[in-house]
Every structure is written in structure tokens, then in C-alpha cells.
RNA helicase (Trifolium subterraneum), 616 residues
Amino acid sequence: MRSSWADLAANSAAENAPPTSAANNANNNNTQPPSRPVYVPPHLRNRGPTAPAPASSERFSAPTAFDNSGSRWAPPPRNDYRGRGGGGGFGNRTGGGGGWDRREANPFADQDDSEEPVTQEEQENTGINFDAYEDIPVETSGGNVPPPVNTFAEIDLGEALNQNIRRCKYVKPTPVQRHAIPISLAGRDLMACAQTGSGKTAAFCFPIISGIMTGQPAQRPPRGVRTVCPLALVLSPTRELSMQIHEEARKFSYQTGVRVVVAYGGAPINQQLRELERGVDILVATPGRLVDLLERARVSLSLIRYLALDEADRMLDMGFEPQIRKIVEQMDMPPAGVRQTMLFSATFPKEIQRLASDFLSNYIFLAVGRVGSSTDLIDQRVEYVQESDKRSHLMDLLHAQRANGVQGKQALTLVFVETKKGADALEHWLCLNNFPATTIHGDRTQQEREAALRSFKSGNTPILVATDVAARGLDIPHVAHVVNFDLPNDIDDYVHRIGRTGRAGKKGLATAFFNENNASLARSLQDLMQEANQEVPAWLSRFAARSSFGGGKNRRSGGRFGGRDFRRDGSFNRGGPDYQGAGNSSGGYGASGGYGGGYGGYAGNSAGPGVTSAWD
DNA sequence: AAAAAAT
């Protein structure tokens, strides 16, 4: 399925050809290349003559000058493309030597490539268990909330994207996707809270890819300038998570002509620069490396139409906020309201929501699922273990697991510890005791980190000792057991850690070692477990009662967890953000239960069970 | 106090 475009690009950048791309060029059909680079809209790139162009393609067939109306920034494409017959033509992509490098490895290469449709039953066996997502509470607030969809077919994402959705074996959208995709396609800013493992990546990737495919072409920087201008930026807090998002996004954008590039620290920058020079529509990055690229003027954000922050609450907490502000507010990114901004996380403390509203314009708040995360899919246990007993206690767990064969043969165990040194020490000790373990933390080289993750995923070392670097976002199939060897100080971190198991509707087990050192977490842990219908040990309740006076920063009342739009909270609402939709929160659909009507009247402690406490 | 994130 090679096009003339591909030939052209391959010629212009042949020296960069990685060996692996040769195989993908095998089915090259030698269509006559155009004599000079001509802009090809993403949805037509990579289209071989054998693949018939969709009927709608005529409107792109006569390029005319792209009029950007003198505006510095072309407005982000809104949800009008279905009606935009032959609007603006396309200018040439003049920036990087004529256009994108079309060579594209098949991201589905490691799966059987049968194009057979997947039945619902199959999906439930191998993929997402949708029964686990029935009947979950949904909250939206903000003005004019677009209604959710029930199927991918209801949304016009384009045939290429639809085909990738089939290749990914997604039969129907998860709840967060059902709600978030229409909101994003409508061009609205979004703050979305959804449980760990519920499909957030696709929820922001699909609208971005679709929007880039169908949107106006970008103005490219002048010739000779090596600065590249992505149209979408996805930021995440760890390198491995950026890698994972990149891999996912590559699958979703396969043969759509939309190019996804990843940039993160700890890896040679030259290779990343080469990838960028081959063209980039969607840049996935960690903040530090992106700042570096911006300061070197190798990347410009001037054409950004979509900004997505994954693990957005983490991205805006103390450690990251200055960098994010620099990237979003102090470089050349179009301002909120011009670009489209999407924030996703499983947790969204109210104070972080307030910070986040700086980056949003007239946004919709969406909360899907119970509490920050913990579904009843995760069996949560807390055991009282003194520091000195932790190792032998872990050993007991691992022995029992080995004997019982928890969840079958390939069960993986992820052990969280507090410090990098502690991770190394525990790994060493486990290995001495014939438990094959490896470790991932920030003192290891990037190579070591990636090798550790690979080794864990493959089952080669079925025990991974990790710091919080692995707490968020990583999608590791077959993690049967998460052990909080050291509990975190923040309940949100706990939520994300245990969310490494029980993903895509599957069950999981989480065991925590609790002792006096964790007293400050007792109350919030107890509340969280109660909300997730978990059995709370009596001793933990006593700890909770003892530590509850004086509140503590982990107190959940006041809404540490996602699930409530802070704009509804009177104390946050004064002189606050542009919240125009307070009055019509439910938008005529979705669950509005739990609210006593109006944002002042939230009857949080008296509304029906199942929603109330979870949405505190 | 710790972890993460650029070189």
C-alpha cells in the first residue's frame, strides 16, 4: 500500500532509512511520483491505488492557497468537517523538505494480522470486560455537553482510524470513551476523570488523530528552518508512560498519514531529532526533554491545536507545575481557547483542578466511574506488618502465590517501595532468595529501566520492584498482584499504584503493608476501601479514628478525589474560572444523581448509596 | 522526605 507520496519521501530521506523499514516497502507499487512535493492531506497519504479513495476526497483534490485570515494561529478544527465541503484548499507542507517521511513500520506486526471481525464474545475474552463497566456513575458539568455515543460507528472517525480500532480489537467504546470522544470532537476543552485502566489514552488520541486528518492543513515554517511544528502535544510524567502512549498512538494512527513522534530524556537526543525531522503531527513527550527541544528551537509549539496532559494532576503538582507552565504559557503555544486542551487522570484533587483551569477555556468536566479509581475489581487487602517483618512477609505472599498459582501461570507481581535504594536492596534480596526480580527507578539508566520493564512484561522476571516511577499509567498485562511494600504518603498515589492491576475489566489483587509509619494514610485508606466495598480491618479503623482529629492532608472530605467538578464548590467558585454551565450540569443526560440540584446544594452525605460517598 | 523530569 505504497503511494507516490511514499516514494517521494523515501527518496528524499533514504539515508535515514532504518533497516526494518525495508520489509514494509516490499509491496511498493511504482506509481509515478510527482515532480515536486505537493501537499497531501493526511487522510490521503499512504493510500495505495488499490484502496479506493472515499467519496469525500474530491474536496481535497484541487489545492488552493490556504488562507489563514491573517491570524497567527489557525483555529483548531471544530466539529464541522462533515459539513465543510470543499472549504479551504491545502497549502504545501514546505517545512521539512517537502513533506512527511511516509515510511511507517507496522505497529500491529506482532499480532496475527487476520482482518476478521472480532465478535463481542472474543473481545470480552481477550480484551476489555465490558460487564465490569455496566452501571457506573457518570458526571458531567459545563455548558452544552455533547451527548455520549454507544458505538464507534456513531462517530465519524474516518475509515483508516476505524480500521485501526478493529485491528486493536476494540468492539465498542469504554464509558470514558463514550463520553469524552464526542466532547473532544466537538472541539471542547475537557477535564476528564476516569478509573485506571479504563481506556483514557484512546479517548484523547482518537479525536486528535481524527481532527488532524480532517482539519485544515498547517502552515509550515519557512524553508531551511529546522524547527518542526507539531499540531498536537501529549505530555506525560514518566518516560515509560510516554513510550507507551507513543506505541498506542502509533497503532491508532497507522496508515492515517498522521505521524506520531516521542521525545523523552535519558535516551540519545539525536535519534529523536531525526524522527522529528521526518515530520511530526503528534508529539508525545516528557516535560524536561521537550523544554530542551524548545530551547534548541528544534520544536515550535506555534501550530499546536491539541494539548493533552495525561496524568494531569501529577503534571500540575509541585514537581512539574513550573515546567508545564513554561511549556504551555511561556513558549509559543496558542493560548487556551485557541488550542483545544484535554486533561485526563484517574485522580483530580480540587486544588489541582483550580490550577488546571488556567489551561482550559469553557471546559467540560467529566467523571466516569467510582472514586479516583478503585473498582471492586481490585481486591484490596491491608496487613499490619512491622518494618522489620516486611521482607519475610513478602516472602510468605510470594510463596503462597507460587503454590496457588494465583490467576494462572503468567501472574506478575509488582512491588512498590518508597525509595530507590530500597528498591535495589529488595530486588537484591529477592534474587538471593531465588525469586526472579528486577527493579525500575530513577537511579537506573534509561536502558536499564526499559530492559526491566520488558523483562517483567515478558514474565522473564515476574517480580518487579518499583518506585513511584511505575505508579501511573503503565499498562502491563497480567499484573495479578500489586504489593505496597511501603505505602505511599498520598492516597492518590495508592489509587494509581493499585491501578496497575485490575485493568480493562479484569480482576486484580492489591496487598498493602501497613504500620505506625502510615498512620496519616489510615483515614483516607479506610474511606477508599469502604467506597470500593472492601473489607476494612478493625485495627485499621482504629488507626483511622485515632488520626482523624486534626484532619490531615489525606482527608477525603472536601474532595481529594476526582469525581467532583471544583467549580461546583462554592469556596472555589469566587472570582473563579469561566464556569458558565453550573446550572445545567447534567446536560439532559447521564447520571446527575447525587446532586441536590445546583452546585451549592450538593447533598453529598445523604444522597443514594453507590454514588454519594464515591463522589465526595 | 521521596520521586519524577534535560545535559
